[in-house]
Every structure is written in C-alpha cells, then in structure tokens.
C-alpha cells in the first residue's frame, strides 16, 4: 500500500507539480522523491515536524483534487494501456508486417513522451 501511494504521489507530482507553491514543491520533492523523513525536512526548513506533516497532507489533498478535476494521470494511464494493447495485438496478429510494426512503434514512442 505504501509503495502504491508513493508511486501515485510521484505521478501526480509530475503532472501537477508546477501548480504547487515553492514550499509545497520542495516538501513533496524531498519527502517522496528523495525519501527524506519529516524530521529531516523540518530541520532543513527550520520548522516543526508537525508543520511539515500538515503541509504534505494538504498538498497531497491538493494533488488529488487537481486529478479529480483534470484527470491528466488517469487519461495518461488509459492511453498507455490502449497503446500497450495495440502493440500486443499487432505483434501477435501481424508478426511479419514490418511497416505496421514500425508505425505501431512510432505511436508507442509518441505516447510514452
């Protein structure tokens, strides 16, 4: 569960990090990206551990709210799943078609950006 939450927060941070304040950005980057503890972040910013904890929880809620309204992460995941299914289908159904394979690879590469 913890790994899933970390992965989700890192993904949301990638999509919506630019919408955060510099303090929110720094705290989340240190906490989720660099695996700092609350105490280490508190020392770094000369604030209480509780202040860091509260800020991170509010920021997580903000990221979730952005996602609930904009759906950027969900759309990205759905697009990648569709492209993966297309690639599997083409490779299984048309293994000898080099042109189709090249086109599907280009689509997959573009979707990965």
TrEMBL record:
InterPro entries reported in the protein's UniProt record: RNA_pol_sigma_r3/r4-like, UPF0122, UPF0122_fam_protein, WH-like_DNA-bd_sf
Pfam families: UPF0122
Gene3D superfamilies associated with the record: Winged helix-like DNA-binding domain superfamily/Winged helix DNA-binding domain
Domain of life: Bacteria
NCBIfam families reported for this sequence: PRK00118.1-4, PRK00118.1-6, YlxM
The protein's role, per its UniProt record: Might take part in the signal recognition particle (SRP) pathway. This is inferred from the conservation of its genetic proximity to ftsY/ffh. May be a regulatory protein.
UniProt record similarity statement: Belongs to the UPF0122 family.
Protein's name according to its UniProt entry: UPF0122 protein FD02_GL000931
């Amino acid at each position: 569960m913890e790994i899933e939450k970390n992965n989700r927060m890192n993904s949301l941070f990638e999509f919506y990090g630019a919408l955060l304040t510099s303090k929110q950005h720094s705290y989340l980057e240190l906490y989720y990206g660099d695996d700092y503890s609350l105490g280490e972040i508190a020392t770094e910013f000369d604030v209480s551990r509780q202040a860091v904890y509260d800020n991170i929880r509010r920021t997580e809620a903000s990221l979730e709210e952005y996602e609930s309204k904009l759906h950027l992460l969900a759309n990205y995941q759905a697009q990648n799943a569709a492209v993966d299914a297309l690639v599997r289908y083409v490779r299984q159904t048309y293994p000898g078609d080099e042109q189709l394979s090249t086109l599907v690879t280009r689509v997959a590469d573009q979707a990965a950006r």
